[in-house]
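Re-running the complex after MR caught last week's input typo. The corrected sequence lines follow. Everything else is unchanged.
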Amino acid sequence: MIFEHPSGPLSTLYWLANNHIWFWLASVGIFSLLVGSFLNVVIYRLPIILDPVKKKAAGTPFNLSKPASHCPKCKNKIKPWQNIPLFSWLVLGGKCFNCKLPIPWRYPLVELSTGAGSVIIAWLCGFTWLAVIGIMGYWLLLVALLIIYDTKSLE
Ligand SMILES: [Zn+2]
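Corrected-run output:
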């Protein structure tokens, strides 16, 4: 036990995570899948945001939250139920709900890698700050490696 025991409503969550490894792993798993969904956005958009030429071509506003996620072909905005990590991709059969354009398998794969890798770190390190730091480092590494991979393959 490395965390300082909080009081109030967080106290129950702390107790569960500290006494039941499954609760800690499940919490990390669910949260990391959502983070994985966001990492897809970062991996795709950060190189564009950082490149003045590409950013200009992408139009304005263009940042990590705008424009809202949409299908590149039919411009259909991705609704919240179509944006649930892994689940939505499976339910939609890997296709846009509106125009059936295939959604690259890369998206669910990044979500799965983020979730699975984070759970493994949480399992190895237990309910500790080390786990939190390790998981965040793993997210950064994943983003960095995939951006490098993408930029290299485009050269
Ligand atoms: Zn579409």
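None of the earlier attempt is carried over here. Residues 13 and 23 are 9 Å apart (CA to CA). The mean pLDDT is 92.
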